[in-house]
Description:
This protein has 320 residues and is α/β, with parallel strands linked by helices. The protein contains nine helices and 19 strands.
Amino acid sequence: MNLLFLGTSAGVPTKTRNVTGIALRESKGKGWYLVDCGEGTQHQVLHTKLSFHSLKAIFITHVHGDHCYGLPGILASAAMGGRKAPLTIVAPAGIKTWLEATCEVTQLCLPFALEFIASDDLPSVEFENIAVETFSLSHRVASYAYTFTERKIDAALDMEKLAQKGIPRGPLWGQLKQGVDIEFAGEPLRSQDYLIFKNTPRKVVIAGDNDQPDLLSEACAEAQVLVHEATYTEEMAEKAGDVGHSYAKLVAAFAESIKLPSLVLTHFSPRYQFSSHASPSIEDIRKEAEGAYSGSLFLARDFGEYTLEKTGYFSEVVGE
C-alpha cells in the first residue's frame, strides 16, 4: 500500500506545491484511489506512473475548491484517454450537483458510467482489495475522513485445527485458504477460524480539513498511518482565528495520545516554504509536531511517495 502526494498546499498552489491530491496505490497491480483533486491534479498525475485506466475510485473530503476543482478535468482526461470502465465517486452531495451542471454547460460527455455515493451518509464501500469507511470531521463545511483497510492479507492454514476436525487435504483446504466458508460433515465452518494471520490488515486514515483531530479516535483504531492537515503552527493559527483548520501541535498531540505509529502532515499554508532559511518555514511545523509526538513523523511534499509494508512499517520511498 503506497501513498503518493500530488499536492500539499492549502487554499492555493505555490510555485513548488500544488493544492491537495493524494493517490493511494494498492500493494499489487496498478489499481489506485484518489483522495481529493484540487485544480491541476491531472497535470500532477502526468508526472507519475499513474494511469486513469487503473483509477478505481475518487474520494472528495469536502466541497472547497482546493480539494475538488480538478475533478472535471480528471474525468475529461480519462475520457480522452479512452477509459470505458465505470468509476466510483464518493463525495458530499453538493459535488454531484456541481459536477452535473459542469458537464451539462461544458458539454462534457463521458464514455464511462459514474457511480456517485454521498459521503454525507457515512458509507462503507468495498472494492476487491480495499474496504473504505467514512467519518465526519469539523470544518466550515461538512468534511470527511476516509479509512482504507486491506481486505486480503496473507494467512497460513492452521494444520492442527484442521487435523483435529478431521478435514481431509484437498479442495476444502484450498477454499479455506482463500477465505471461503465451507460445510463439512453437515457443519458450516468459517474460514477465519482455520487461518493463522501473520500480520494485521494494513490501514490508512486520510482526513479532510478538520479542527478537531480527536474526532478521529474511532477511525484511527488499529490504523498504522494517519494523514492529516497541519495548515499552521500554533502561533499562526492563533492569528488566523477560527478558520476550521488544525495546527501541527494539535494534530501531533492527538496522534501521541492514541499511540499512532506513523503520522503524515500535509495541507500547509502557502506562506510556509520548504527552505529552512525562510520564515515561516515548513520546518517550523516539523519542529512543533516533534515536540508533541514520539512516533514516526513525516511532512508530505509534492510527489513524495511513502509505503506501508505488510508488517505495518511505514517509510518514505527513496528515488527509484
